[in-house]
Amino acid sequence: MNYLWDNIFKRQEREQDIRGVLAQNFLFRNVTKRELSLIQSLVHIRKYRTGEEVFKQNEAGVGMYIIVKGRVDISVLDDNLTERDKDKEIVVTSLEAGDFFGELSLVEEISTRSATARASEDSILIGFFKSDLLEILARSPEAGIKIVFRLAEVLGRRLKETTDRISQLKKEIRLLGELQEVTRDTRRISPEKN
Protein backbone atom coordinates (compact mmCIF):
# COMPACT_ATOMS: atom_id res chain seq x y z
CA MET A 1 0.00 0.00 0.00
CA ASN A 2 2.93 2.38 -0.45
CA TYR A 3 1.35 3.62 -3.67
CA LEU A 4 -0.90 6.00 -1.77
CA TRP A 5 2.04 7.50 0.09
CA ASP A 6 4.16 7.65 -3.08
CA ASN A 7 1.42 9.63 -4.81
CA ILE A 8 1.10 12.05 -1.88
CA PHE A 9 4.86 12.65 -1.83
CA LYS A 10 4.98 13.05 -5.61
CA ARG A 11 2.11 15.54 -5.44
CA GLN A 12 3.90 17.55 -2.74
CA GLU A 13 7.11 17.50 -4.80
CA ARG A 14 5.22 18.61 -7.92
CA GLU A 15 3.55 21.46 -5.98
CA GLN A 16 6.96 22.61 -4.74
CA ASP A 17 8.25 22.50 -8.34
CA ILE A 18 5.29 24.61 -9.49
CA ARG A 19 5.86 27.09 -6.67
CA GLY A 20 9.56 27.29 -7.52
CA VAL A 21 8.86 27.89 -11.21
CA LEU A 22 6.34 30.60 -10.37
CA ALA A 23 8.74 32.26 -7.91
CA GLN A 24 11.50 32.33 -10.55
CA ASN A 25 9.24 33.66 -13.31
CA PHE A 26 9.84 37.32 -14.15
CA LEU A 27 6.16 38.25 -13.73
CA PHE A 28 5.92 36.87 -10.19
CA ARG A 29 9.45 37.41 -8.92
CA ASN A 30 8.60 40.40 -6.69
CA VAL A 31 5.40 39.13 -5.06
CA THR A 32 5.27 38.08 -1.40
CA LYS A 33 5.00 34.44 -0.28
CA ARG A 34 1.35 34.98 0.54
CA GLU A 35 0.67 36.50 -2.90
CA LEU A 36 2.57 33.63 -4.51
CA SER A 37 0.31 31.16 -2.68
CA LEU A 38 -2.72 32.93 -4.13
CA ILE A 39 -1.23 32.75 -7.63
CA GLN A 40 -0.37 29.07 -7.19
CA SER A 41 -3.97 28.33 -6.14
CA LEU A 42 -5.29 29.89 -9.37
CA VAL A 43 -2.93 28.60 -12.08
CA HIS A 44 -3.65 25.55 -14.20
CA ILE A 45 -1.23 22.66 -14.78
CA ARG A 46 -1.36 21.20 -18.27
CA LYS A 47 0.50 18.23 -19.75
CA TYR A 48 1.25 17.99 -23.47
CA ARG A 49 2.67 15.09 -25.45
CA THR A 50 5.30 15.54 -28.14
CA GLY A 51 3.67 17.15 -31.19
CA GLU A 52 0.54 18.28 -29.34
CA GLU A 53 -0.58 21.88 -29.92
CA VAL A 54 -0.82 24.20 -26.95
CA PHE A 55 -2.60 26.70 -29.17
CA LYS A 56 -2.88 27.44 -32.89
CA GLN A 57 -2.16 30.62 -34.83
CA ASN A 58 -5.29 32.82 -35.24
CA GLU A 59 -7.15 31.15 -32.35
CA ALA A 60 -8.54 33.28 -29.55
CA GLY A 61 -5.93 33.83 -26.85
CA VAL A 62 -6.96 33.44 -23.22
CA GLY A 63 -3.68 33.45 -21.33
CA MET A 64 -0.01 32.69 -21.09
CA TYR A 65 1.99 29.55 -20.36
CA ILE A 66 5.14 28.91 -18.36
CA ILE A 67 7.19 25.83 -19.19
CA VAL A 68 7.85 23.71 -16.10
CA LYS A 69 9.37 20.80 -17.99
CA GLY A 70 9.95 20.06 -21.67
CA ARG A 71 10.25 22.19 -24.81
CA VAL A 72 7.77 24.14 -26.92
CA ASP A 73 8.27 25.34 -30.50
CA ILE A 74 6.68 28.59 -31.60
CA SER A 75 5.90 28.65 -35.31
CA VAL A 76 4.07 30.75 -37.89
CA LEU A 77 2.38 29.87 -41.15
CA ASP A 78 4.45 30.81 -44.21
CA ASP A 79 2.26 33.06 -46.39
CA ASN A 80 4.68 32.84 -49.32
CA LEU A 81 4.18 29.15 -50.03
CA THR A 82 2.25 27.69 -52.93
CA GLU A 83 -1.37 26.59 -52.47
CA ARG A 84 -0.23 22.97 -52.12
CA ASP A 85 2.19 23.79 -49.26
CA LYS A 86 0.13 26.56 -47.61
CA ASP A 87 -0.10 24.79 -44.24
CA LYS A 88 3.67 24.63 -43.70
CA GLU A 89 4.97 26.36 -40.63
CA ILE A 90 8.26 28.06 -39.88
CA VAL A 91 9.62 27.55 -36.37
CA VAL A 92 10.65 31.00 -35.14
CA THR A 93 11.88 29.94 -31.70
CA SER A 94 12.16 26.99 -29.33
CA LEU A 95 11.46 27.55 -25.66
CA GLU A 96 12.46 25.45 -22.66
CA ALA A 97 11.85 25.11 -18.93
CA GLY A 98 11.47 28.51 -17.27
CA ASP A 99 10.46 30.30 -20.48
CA PHE A 100 6.97 31.72 -20.94
CA PHE A 101 4.84 32.70 -23.92
CA GLY A 102 1.39 34.00 -24.87
CA GLU A 103 1.44 36.85 -22.35
CA LEU A 104 -0.01 39.39 -24.80
CA SER A 105 -3.40 37.71 -24.41
CA LEU A 106 -3.47 38.81 -20.77
CA VAL A 107 -3.85 42.46 -21.77
CA GLU A 108 -5.63 42.47 -25.12
CA GLU A 109 -9.39 42.90 -24.99
CA ILE A 110 -9.87 40.48 -27.86
CA SER A 111 -6.73 38.45 -28.37
CA THR A 112 -5.81 36.37 -31.39
CA ARG A 113 -2.76 34.10 -31.32
CA SER A 114 -0.02 35.37 -33.65
CA ALA A 115 1.73 31.98 -33.76
CA THR A 116 1.26 28.30 -33.02
CA ALA A 117 2.78 26.74 -29.89
CA ARG A 118 3.52 23.00 -30.06
CA ALA A 119 5.24 20.73 -27.57
CA SER A 120 8.45 19.45 -29.19
CA GLU A 121 8.80 16.91 -26.36
CA ASP A 122 6.54 15.78 -23.53
CA SER A 123 5.96 18.95 -21.52
CA ILE A 124 4.35 20.27 -18.36
CA LEU A 125 3.08 23.86 -18.56
CA ILE A 126 1.53 26.28 -16.12
CA GLY A 127 -1.43 28.11 -17.61
CA PHE A 128 -2.03 31.62 -16.27
CA PHE A 129 -5.16 33.03 -17.85
CA LYS A 130 -6.77 36.46 -18.06
CA SER A 131 -9.49 35.34 -15.63
CA ASP A 132 -6.74 34.40 -13.13
CA LEU A 133 -5.17 37.86 -13.44
CA LEU A 134 -8.56 39.53 -13.00
CA GLU A 135 -9.24 37.44 -9.90
CA ILE A 136 -5.87 38.40 -8.42
CA LEU A 137 -6.62 42.07 -9.12
CA ALA A 138 -9.95 41.70 -7.32
CA ARG A 139 -8.70 39.66 -4.34
CA SER A 140 -5.27 41.23 -3.89
CA PRO A 141 -4.97 44.51 -5.82
CA GLU A 142 -1.38 45.05 -4.65
CA ALA A 143 -0.28 41.68 -6.07
CA GLY A 144 -2.27 42.34 -9.24
CA ILE A 145 -0.57 45.70 -9.77
CA LYS A 146 2.87 44.13 -9.28
CA ILE A 147 2.06 41.53 -11.93
CA VAL A 148 0.60 44.08 -14.36
CA PHE A 149 3.69 46.31 -14.06
CA ARG A 150 5.99 43.35 -14.67
CA LEU A 151 3.82 42.32 -17.61
CA ALA A 152 4.08 45.84 -19.04
CA GLU A 153 7.86 45.63 -18.69
CA VAL A 154 7.95 42.29 -20.54
CA LEU A 155 5.76 43.61 -23.36
CA GLY A 156 7.88 46.76 -23.61
CA ARG A 157 11.09 44.73 -23.86
CA ARG A 158 9.62 42.44 -26.50
CA LEU A 159 8.39 45.44 -28.49
CA LYS A 160 11.86 47.00 -28.33
CA GLU A 161 13.49 43.73 -29.43
CA THR A 162 11.05 43.49 -32.34
CA THR A 163 11.67 47.11 -33.35
CA ASP A 164 15.45 46.56 -33.20
CA ARG A 165 15.13 43.40 -35.31
CA ILE A 166 12.97 45.18 -37.92
CA SER A 167 15.52 48.01 -38.12
CA GLN A 168 18.29 45.47 -38.62
CA LEU A 169 16.32 43.67 -41.34
CA LYS A 170 15.64 46.98 -43.13
CA LYS A 171 19.39 47.70 -43.16
CA GLU A 172 20.10 44.23 -44.53
CA ILE A 173 17.46 44.65 -47.24
CA ARG A 174 18.91 48.05 -48.21
CA LEU A 175 22.41 46.54 -48.41
CA LEU A 176 21.13 43.70 -50.57
CA GLY A 177 19.52 46.22 -52.91
CA GLU A 178 22.79 48.16 -53.16
CA LEU A 179 24.68 44.93 -53.83
CA GLN A 180 22.23 44.04 -56.61
CA GLU A 181 22.79 47.45 -58.21
CA VAL A 182 26.56 47.04 -58.08
CA THR A 183 26.25 43.56 -59.59
CA ARG A 184 24.05 44.89 -62.42
CA ASP A 185 26.45 47.78 -63.07
CA THR A 186 29.41 45.40 -63.12
CA ARG A 187 27.68 43.14 -65.67
CA ARG A 188 26.94 46.13 -67.91
CA ILE A 189 30.54 47.29 -67.80
CA SER A 190 32.09 43.88 -68.38
CA PRO A 191 29.62 41.56 -70.14
CA GLU A 192 30.46 37.87 -69.94
CA LYS A 193 31.98 36.29 -73.02
CA ASN A 194 30.01 33.55 -74.71
Strand-helix topology:
Layout (H helix, E strand, L loop, with lengths): L1 H23 L8 H10 L1 E5 L4 E3 L7 E7 L1 E7 L11 E8 L3 E2 L14 E4 L3 E7 H10 L1 H49 L5
Antiparallel strand pairs: 1-8, 2-7, 3-6, 3-8, 4-5, 4-7
Helix pairs in contact: 1-2, 3-4
Provide a descriptive summary of the structure in words:
This protein is of the alpha+beta class. It has a single domain, classed as Jelly Rolls, CATH 2.60.120. 47% of the residues lie in helices and 22% in strands. The chain has four helices and eight strands. It has helices spanning 2-24, 33-42, 130-139, 141-189, and strands spanning 44-48, 53-55, 63-69, 71-77, 89-96, 100-101, 116-119, 123-129. The strands form two sheets. The protein has a four-stranded antiparallel sheet. Helix 1 crosses helix 2. The longest helix has 49 residues, at 141-189. The radius of gyration is 23 Å and the shape is elongated. It starts with a helix and ends in a 5-residue tail after the last helix.
Which short descriptors sum up this protein?
194 residues, alpha+beta, Jelly Rolls, 4-stranded antiparallel β-sheet, 4 helices, 22% strand, elongated
For the largest beta sheet, what order do the strands appear in spatially? Answer: 1-8-3-6
Helix content: 40-55%
Q: What is the approximate shape?
A: elongated
Largest sheet: 4 strands, antiparallel
